Each structure stands twice: as C-alpha cells, then as structure tokens.
Amino acid sequence: MLEIRPLGLDGVLEIVPKRFGDARGFFVETYNEERFSDAGIDLRFVQDNHSHSAAAGILRGLHYQLPPRAQDKLLRVVRGRVFDVAVDIRRSSKTFRKWVALEISAEKGNQILVPKGFAHGFVTLVPDTEVLYKVTDTYSPQHDRSIRFDDPAIGIEWPSLSGEFQLSDKDLKAPTLAAAEVFA
Ligand SMILES: Cc1cn([C@H]2C[C@H](O)[C@@H](COP(=O)(O)OP(=O)(O)O[C@H]3O[C@H](C)C(=O)[C@H](O)[C@H]3O)O2)c(=O)[nH]c1=O
C-alpha cells in the first residue's frame, strides 16, 4: 500500500501511497498512521499546511525551524508540479550541505518526507500549483529560519524556467548556509 524510496540522504524519502483507480477517477489514502508506522515511519503530525502558488517559477524556501521546534514535513501536490529540495543542515552530518531533489506532482501522487535537520524548499513548475503538507511541530516564528536558495556552497541545480524565480522578501534576504543558525 506504500511504496517507499530512500533519496540518498538520511531519512529523506519518496513515498507513493497506492491509488485505487476506476471509471469514476481514483481514491487514495494520502496518510495512514498505522501503515506509516508499519513502514518504520513513526511520526506525530500536528499541523496541516496548504500553499497555493499562482505562477510557475514561484520558489518557497529554503526553510526550517530550529530545535526545540524542528519539524518533520510530509509534502504532496494536489494540483500542478513542483521541483522539491531537501538540504542536510546538520553541521555534524557526513552529508552536511548535501541536497536531494524530486519532482512531486498531482499526477504522480508522490510525496516527500523531509526530516528534522533538513532545510526544505520547492519551485513550482506550472501555474496554479497547490501543495499540502503535514508537520510534526506547530509554527514557531521565533524558530523559523531561511537559507538562500542559490547559496553556491550548497549548489542546488534548480530547473531553468523561462523568466526569473519569484520569491518572498524574506527569502530574498535569507542568509547563506555559512551565516545561518543551523543544527549541531
Ligand atoms: C509556515 C507558516 C507560515 N505562516 C504564516 C507566516 C506568513 O505570514 C505567511 C506566509 O509564510 P511563509 O512566507 O513562510 O510561507 P512559505 O514561503 O510558503 O513557507 C513555507 O514554505 C516552505 C516550502 C516550507 O518548507 C515551510 O514549511 C514554510 O516555511 O503564513 C503560518 O501562519 N504558519 C506556518 O506554519
């Protein structure tokens, strides 16, 4: 019922729940605590988020919350497509500053699990993209942090889209990884 694929960094997973298609369309259990637990994913989600991005090229990230309010995130796309990125920001990790990326789309019905200790971001690939995600701690502005999406020390190979990326002021002013407060 759950297809799980490690993406090459500690605990960052692609998850594809089984989709039951029929002449009417489809049904899918997008999250089932028991099935996730059976797959070794024991997380307690306490908040659901929904973001709508009107255009392609809207980039949100790289974001994370610091301990003690760090969040695991389980993200899926219900309309459109995103290029989704997770970056290891644990200074003691052997994969510190390494990143992985995955296309997540409504059509594929896939999800990404981004554990605590990772910065997360995505860029939309088509207009009117809607992203839903569950997090394991509630929003804490005091612990909310950003890192520059284009930090050369990380070197994310974002897709080249026509036109400039659109970012929030907060993300445009984000520090580099070297200047950011991250995980030990
Ligand atoms: C994240 C969050 C935000 N907000 C408020 C704060 C701002 O007034 C407004 C927009 O927040 P922000 O610009 O941080 O939203 P995004 O740029 O979509 O941020 C998210 O995008 C990337 C992809 C992430 O991984 C994070 O989960 C999250 O930071 O919503 C809340 O009230 N609760 C929340 O949990």
From TrEMBL:
In UniProt terms, what function does this protein have? Catalyzes the epimerization of the C3' and C5'positions of dTDP-6-deoxy-D-xylo-4-hexulose, forming dTDP-6-deoxy-L-lyxo-4-hexulose.
Primary gene name: rfbC
Q: Which InterPro entries match?
A: RmlC-like (IPR000888), RmlC-like_jellyroll (IPR014710), RmlC_Cupin_sf (IPR011051)
Subunit and partners: Homodimer.
State its Enzyme Commission number(s).
5.1.3.13
Give the pathway: Carbohydrate biosynthesis; dTDP-L-rhamnose biosynthesis
Question: In which family does this protein belong, per the annotation?
Answer: Belongs to the dTDP-4-dehydrorhamnose 3,5-epimerase family.
Q: Which GO terms describe its cellular component?
A: cytosol
Q: Which Gene3D superfamilies match?
A: Jelly Rolls (2.60.120.10)
Please list the reactions this protein catalyses.
Answer: dTDP-4-dehydro-6-deoxy-alpha-D-glucose = dTDP-4-dehydro-beta-L-rhamnose
List the PANTHER family hit by this protein, alphabetically: DTDP-6-DEOXY-D-GLUCOSE-3,5 EPIMERASE (PTHR21047), THYMIDINE DIPHOSPHO-4-KETO-RHAMNOSE 3,5-EPIMERASE (PTHR21047:SF2)
Residues carrying the site annotation Participates in a stacking interaction with the thymidine ring of dTDP-4-oxo-6-deoxyglucose: 139
Cite the Pfam families for this sequence. Answer: dTDP_sugar_isom
Q: Which GO terms describe its biological process?
A: dTDP-rhamnose biosynthetic process; polysaccharide biosynthetic process
Q: Which GO terms describe its molecular function?
A: dTDP-4-dehydrorhamnose 3,5-epimerase activity
Per the Swiss-Prot or TrEMBL record, the active site comprises 63, 133
SUPFAM superfamilies given in the database record: RmlC-like cupins (SSF51182)
> What name is this protein filed under?
dTDP-4-dehydrorhamnose 3,5-epimerase
UniProt keyword list:
Isomerase
